[in-house]
Amino acid sequence: MVDISSASPETRSGPIIQQREWSPWHLIWLALAAVTMFCVVFWAALGRPPLSGAKIIAVLGFTFVVLVNLSIGALATGAVIEHRQPNWSRFGAVDHVFMYVALAGLAATDAGSAWWLFSSDSGGQARWIFLLIALGAMAGGALWAWPALPLALARAAGDRKTAWALWPQHEPDARPAGTWRFFALLTVLLGAALGVVVAVAYLGISAWRESQDVPAGHPMPAAIAGIHGGYVALGDSYSAGEGLPPFAPGTAQTNCDRSESSAYPDLLITLLRRQDHRAPFSYTACSGALVRQILGPANRSGGVVPPQISGLIQPSVGLVTLTIGGNNALFSKVVLTCLTDGNCLHQTFPPPGVTEATARHVPPGDLLNRWGPATIEEIGNEEAALFRTLRHDFPNARIVVIGYPYLFPARPAPGFPFTPPMCASILNRLSAGERAGIRTLQDEFNDRSYEEAAVSGVEFVSPGAIWDGHEPCGADGQYTNSVKPYLNFPNPVNGGSFHPNGAGQQTLAALTACYLDANRQPPDPFVPGQPPAHTIPDRMVTPAQLHMVPAPGLSSVPGSGEIPFCRG
User: Fold this and answer.
1) 3-state helix, strand, coil in the chain (%, to 5)
2) 5, 37, 339, 551: which has the fewest Cβ within 10 Å?
3) What gap in Å lies between CA 471 and CA 458, rounded to an integer?
4) ∠ CA 466-438-461, rounded to 5°
5) Mind listing the pLDDT tens digit for each residue in 283-296?
C-alpha cells in the first residue's frame, strides 16, 4: 500500500510551489454541470420533448439517486482524508467550508427522499430498490475517492501513473507541474448533483407554496333552513376529506382517511345544528369508495370496511349528501397517465393491473372516444341502482348528489419563466387539447349523474360556477390541490393531490348550503310542459336531449342575488 502521509510540500527534487487546488476552471466546470442538470430536470418536469414520458422520469430518478449518492460517498471520504492527511491536497478553509456545506445539503436531500419513500406504506419494492442503488452508489463514490486502493492496484500492475483516484492528490515526487488526477471530474460530478438537488428543491418549494397559498373558501350562509331530521354523509374521498388530517380513529388504517373536522359534511352539520342542536349526524364516507361500496362492504389492506348505509328504512333522516363515481372512472389513474405519458387521450384504458369493478366490465379502448364514454355509461347504470335504493331507504330526506369540479383549468399553460414552477410543470405536461378533452369527459360524467339522479327522484348540484378559476393551478387560486409537497409513492395523485383543500371543502359546504337555502323544495329538473324522462338511454345523451334544465350550480352559484353569502 502507498503511504499517503508521505505527501509533503517539499521533496527530494526541490520544493513544490503551493498552488490552489481550486482553479477558476474548476468553478466554471462545476457551474456548467449544475446549470445543465438543473435545466434537464426542469425541462423534464415541464414534460417537454424529448424529455417527456414515464421512462424519462424513471431514468432521471435513477440518475438523481446515483449522482447524489456518488457525491456523498466521494465527499464523505474526502472529509476523512482531509482530516487525517491535511497535506494530501491543497484545500484551504474556503474549500473545506464549501465541501462540508455541499455534503450536508446532499445528505439532507438523500435523507428526505428516503423518508418520503419509507414513511408511506405504498412504497412497496421501489423503496428497497432505491436503498440498494443509493448504498451502492455511495460505496462506489467512497471507493473512487479513496486514493490508497487505486494507487496500490496501479502499482501492482506496474504503472503507478494509471492511478485514477477521484479525490484531489499530488504525487509524493511531483514537481510543480504534478498531477491532480480527476479533480476536474469531481467538480463536474458535484456540480451535476447540486444541479439536480436545486431543481428538485425548487419544484418542491413551489408545490409547498402553492398548497399553502390558497384563497379563502366561498362564504357560507348563516344556517340551512328547511331541513328537519338527521344528516347522513356518504361518498368517496371528496366527501371524506382526503388529505386533511387528522383523520377519524381507525380510518387511516383502512385508507378511508375520513377527516375529523375539515370536510364539508362537518361544516354542514355545524350549520344544521344552529337550527336543531340535537340533529343526529352519520358520517361514513370513505376515500377510494366505489359506487357499489355505498351499499356493500369494501375489502381493504387494513380490514373490511362495512357498507356506508345499514339497509334499513330511516324516515327520520332529513338530508343525505354524497360524491361518488370518480374511483369507478379511475380519475386518479387518468391524471397520473396524463402527467407521465404523452397524448393521454388516445392511450388505451384501463392501465395494466387495474382491478376496479367498472374497469373490468368495459372493454379496453381509447380514453377519449371509447373507454371513457363506455365507462361513464356503465357508472350511470350503477348510480341508477344506488340512487333508487337511497330514495327508498331515506323516504323523507333531501338527497343531494354533488358533482365533481374540473381536474384541470381551461386557461393556457404559462410561458417563460414558467412561474409558478410546479403549476407550470403540470399545465405544460398536458396540451390545451388534452385538458379540453378531460374537461369534456368530466362534463359527460356529471351530465350522466344528473340524469340518473333526476329520474330517481334524487337532486344534483354542480360545482361548475362556484369552482370556476379555482381548479388545480387555476388563475384565481386553488380550491383543489394540484400536487402536495408530500406525496404517497409511487402514485403522485394520492395524499390530497387533486382533492379539495380546506378552502375547497368549505366551498363544497357553501355550494350545498346555498343550494338548499335557495330551493326549500326539490326543484323540477325537467323543462315545464315537456314529458319527463323515466329511463336514460344506453347511448350518451345530454340533459337537454332529455328535456332537462341545466343542472343547478352549473352557470351560477345557487341563491346568487337572493342570499347574500351565496353571491358569486
Assistant:
1) 45, 5, 45
2) 5
3) 27
4) 30
5) 999 999 999 999 99
Beta carbons of 261 and 347 less than 8 angstroms apart: no
Tally Cβ neighbours within 10 Å of residue 231. 25
Query: What is the four-CA torsion angle of 135, 138, 140, 141, rounded to 10 degrees?
Result: 180
Which stretch of DSSP H or E encloses residue 130?
helix 125-145
In this predicted model, what pLDDT tens digit does every residue of 175-193 receive, in sequence order? Answer: 444 445 556 778 888 899 8
Q: Which amino acid is at 429?
A: R
Q: At what angle do helices 125-145 and 54-84 cross, to 10 degrees?
A: 40
Q: What is the pLDDT of residues 318-371, one digit of tens each?
A: 999 999 999 999 998 888 888 877 788 988 898 877 766 666 688 889 999 999
Distance CA 400, CA 459 (A): 5
Contact 151, 173 (CB under 8 A): no
Task: Determine contact, residues 74/145, Cβ cutoff 8 Å.
Answer: yes
Say if pTM beats, i.e. exceeds, 0.85. Answer: no
- DSSP code for 298: E
Query: Do residues 22 and 95 lie in contact, with contact meaning Cβ atoms separated by under 8 Å?
Result: yes
Strands 459-461, 348-349: pairing is unpaired
- List, in sequence order, the alpha helices (H) in 165-230: 183-212
Q: Which of 253, 302, 226, 81 is nearest to 563 (CA)?
A: 226
- 196 neighbors 37 (Cβ within 8 angstroms): yes
Closest listed residue to residue 462, CA positions, set 357, 551, 381: 551
Cα separation of 60 and 51, whole Å?
9
Scanning the structure block, which residue is given the C-alpha cell 382491478? Answer: 355
Distance CA 61, CA 49 (A): 17
Cα separation, 34 vs 200, whole angstroms = 12
Nearest CA among 321, 324, 282 for reference residue 510: 321
Which amino acid, residue 227? I
Grid cell of 465 as nine digits: 360556477
- Provide DSSP, 322-360: E--STTTTTHHHHHHHHHHSSSGGGSEESPTT---HHHH
Angle at Cα 324 formed by Cα 243 and Cα 374, nearest 5°?
120
Cell numbers placing 340: 407521465
Q: CA 291 to CA 189: how far, in whole Å?
A: 52
